[in-house]
User: Fold these one by one.
Assistant:
Number 1:
Amino acid sequence: MLAFYLDLVSLPEEKSKVEEIYYTYRKLIYHIAYSKLQKQEWAEDAVHDVMLAVIENISKLRQMNENDTKAFLYVITRNVAVDLLRKEQRRITADMEEAPITGGIDPQQELGVQMLAQWIARLKPIYRDVLELTVYYGFSAKECALLLKISTATVRKRLERARALLKDQMEGEECYAK
């Protein structure tokens, strides 16, 4: 697959940067995509799309340090995964309109997961990013701070605020459910 990406780049220094990014970060990209998408095939598609975005932005990436590159790849991977999920959601919605309702997943559990995802999506990006990096991807507060170029104390405070905002949203929904 690397040969395909290298064929898309003309300059030797750009080829070496694409190769470096591919070997250094492909597992991280896959892990981030898989944690969002929960399907191996989709995560592999996301890695491909991210590598195409890398090639489109290779001149910028050549000038970035390691932390900037990781942050860039995280944001691009997250956006690609969200786009894939949106496409799949549109496809599922179209299929649901045509197909009869059948059993499978516990509807209450599915509803809870969907509501949590909606609550997280409603958070401001500064809170959502910190929450995703620490909870979904398991980054420490220090690693998260390096990726986002903020202090560790800021990461902790944003994480505290994100959790409080989620709690408020959940309590607000419970009031309507009663």
Number 2:
Amino acid sequence: VDELILEVGALPYNRFGKHAGFRIESVSNDSILKKIGLRSRDAILAINDIPIKDESQAHAFFEKIAEGEKVYIKYRRRARTSTIELVPI
């Protein structure tokens, strides 16, 4: 999980002067994040409708993906907010 965090370069994301999640700086073509539809510069705002308020919740995001759990990911790309449903295979 820590390796994935370093690989994508997850950085804090602030909106209107408040912490609002984290931004994915780099998504490689073979990354799991790319496969689920996320891109470089997307901001992850919530996991399963729980807003990401601190670093530990950002870490939990990557753990849930690594564990293959069903996850709803709320993210912001440019000026649009969307949700991806990640379902284990």
